[in-house]
Amino acid sequence: MSEKGNGKLGGAIKRRDMLKVFSAVPAVLVPFGTALAAEQKTSGSAAAAQTASAYQRKVFSGHEWETIKVLSDLIIPADERSRSASQAGVPAFIDDWLNFKGGKLKAEILGGLTWLDLECNREFSHDFVSCTSTQQKKMLDRIAYPDKAVPGDSNYVAFFNYLRDLVVGGFYSSEEGVKDLPYLGNKVVPVWEGCPPDVLSQIEQNLKTKRVGLSLASDQESTQS
Q1: Nearest alpha carbon to residue 4 among 82, 67, 92
Q2: pLDDT, tens digit, for every residue of 104-147?
Q3: Are residues 153 and 204 located together in one domain of the fold?
Q4: Are residues 138 and 51 in the same domain?
Q5: Is there a single domain that holds both residue 118 and residue 223?
Q6: What's the pTM value of the predicted model, to 2 decimals?
Q7: DSSP element (H, E) containing 38
Q8: Are residues 220 and 145 in the same domain?
Q9: Mean pLDDT, residues 93-110
Q10: Same domain for 148 and 225?
Q11: Is residue 7 part of a domain?
Q12: Exposed / middle / buried, residue 97 (Cβ in 10 Å: 0-12, 13-18, 19+)
C-alpha cells in the first residue's frame, strides 16, 4: 500500500491523489454523524483529543477503535496541509455511519478488522496495532491493490476498499478536509457582479459548438440594465 511520505511508511502518495479516490466515493458516504459534527467545532490537537475522548462509541470495541484510528492515519496521514484522518474525526464518522447503516457494510468492516488481527498474529505474533509500520504496510499491501491480490484475499480486498472509501469520504467531508481541498464554496457573496466575461465567452463557445441558439452575454446585459 502506497502512503504519503510522513516519516512512518515508505512510498509516497500525494494528497491530491486522494481526490481521485474521493471522486469514486458513493454519495451515501457524504452525510455526517452527530459525533463528527461535534468534532468539527474543535480546533487544535488538544481540543480534538478532548472531543475524541468524550465520544461514545456505538459499534467499535476499544481495540477496534484503536485499529480504525491506525488504519485511518495510514490511509490519510498528517502532512504540511492538514492533520491526519483520525485528528479530523474520521473514526467517529465511521462508527456513526456503521451504526446507521448496519447490515453488510458493518459486517464487512468488523470482519476485516478481525481478519487483520488474525493474520498479523499468525505472521508477526502481534495484533495489527502492535505491529511495526513495515509489518502493517506489508499486511495492507496484500489487500490494497485488487489486481495484485491473490484470490483467497478477495473478501478482504473488498473490506479494505469499503474502509478506504469511508476514510476518504469522511475526511473530505470534514472541516479539515474541506480546508485541505481548498473548497471555495459556502462563502457569502455580498455583491453579485455577474459571471466573468471570460467564463461567459467559454460557455457561449461551448453552446455554439453544440448549436444551441443562446447568447448569455446579451441576457446578462439586459439584466444589469
Answers
A1: 82
A2: 999 999 999 999 999 999 999 999 999 999 999 999 999 999 99
A3: no
A4: yes
A5: no
A6: 0.64
A7: helix 34-40
A8: no
A9: 95
A10: no
A11: no
A12: buried
